[in-house]
Amino acid sequence: MEITDVIVHTLSLSNVEDVANGTQDAAIIEVTTDEGITGIGEADSSPAVVEAIVNAPRSHDKSTGLKEVVVGRDPFDVQVLWDEMFDKSYYYGRKGAAITAISGIDMALWDIMGKVTGKPIHKLIGGKKCNEVRAYASTLFPEDPMNTEYMRRQSEQILEDGFTAVKFGWGSFGQDVEHDHELLGAARDILGPNFDIMVDAGMTYGWDTKRAIKTTKSLDKAHNLFWMEEPVFADNVEGYAEISNATETRIVGGEEEYTAYGFRDFISRGNVDGVQPDVARSGGITHMNKIASLAAQSGIPFLPHGYSTDILVAASLHLIAANPNAPLLEYCIEDSPLRWDVVEEDLDVEDGYVSVPTDPGLGVTLDRDTIAKYRTKLLC
């Protein structure tokens, strides 16, 4: 079997707003083979940039488009191909969009292997410890920092949908600590004292570690946070350690990190209480398993980030099922067709849990009508 092509479907809503909402566009990758079996994956980055990285012509041994690296190769050689894609994109890669593009291709290769063998991906990476995974609803704070009514409505819907945990992030959070208290208080009033509430600070405190410590302590004391996520910049690793050492709150992060090499330092120097790599950003199935092992060796949970399509959700479910230190699934609840309609299958929440796919490969199928409807022609 040989790879014959790598196709990037660049999808976008008609109006992409300047907000931290990853469901407004998507880069969906298909890898085709000479035996008619196709794998799908996702790269969570700018679709235009991903398309350029995949299709770029060779300009140097360390600066080659990813399609040129993998076409003509055996899709079962996932580790060999991962290493070659990383090596041949070194001048423009190492982190960021190049790794996300590798992630999408790698995901598609695992999908192919599952379809060829008739096995779901979790069977190929060690089996599954569970048939379903506890999911937490993931949504944004309102852009208006005084909109407590939004928090109440969202919380009521989250309860109605059967979740037992929620994460609010980004939006207006961090603009004013009193407003942050009011927003979280409104949610806690609806959700009750035993519901797990996480906060994603969206790196709002930057390099200001002292402010991050003070605010984390204040919010946790008032609202009993399950964790504080990404309080400071990803490169402020020492800041993570200071916050973790100075507070009793779980401090987690990692969605802005891309490789096992980076996570090794993030874990050892950042003293975090959990890591959140994203399968569509952090090297795909092949590399995420390495990051999960690093976390396990350090005695901390592996908490995959995910705020995009059900392709990503399916891949995360396989990884969580196969890794014993992975207790939770991030489940984006944004109202976007690119969140819900990219695949034909429904990965629904029932009583706070999502079932692990059991069909071969990822276990999900592209909805061709959605792909056609939202495909965007990009200038690159």
UniProtKB/TrEMBL annotation:
Q: Which Gene3D superfamilies match?
A: Enolase-like C-terminal domain (3.20.20.120), Enolase-like, N-terminal domain (3.30.390.10)
Under which name does UniProt file this protein?
Mandelate racemase/muconate lactonizing enzyme family protein
PANTHER family reported in the protein's UniProt record: ENOLASE SUPERFAMILY, MANDELATE RACEMASE, MITOCHONDRIAL ENOLASE SUPERFAMILY MEMBER 1
**Pfam families, per database record:** MR_MLE_C, MR_MLE_N
Instruction: Give the species this sequence originates from.
Output: Halorubrum trueperi
Q: Which CDD domains match?
A: MR_like
Residues in Mandelate racemase/muconate lactonizing enzyme C-terminal domain copies:
148-250
Keywords in alphabetical order: Magnesium, Metal-binding
The record's annotation in InterPro entries points to: Enolase-like_C_sf, Enolase-like_N, Enolase_C-like, Mandel_Rmase/mucon_lact_enz_CS, Mandelate_racemase_C, Mandelate_racemase_N_dom, RHMD-like
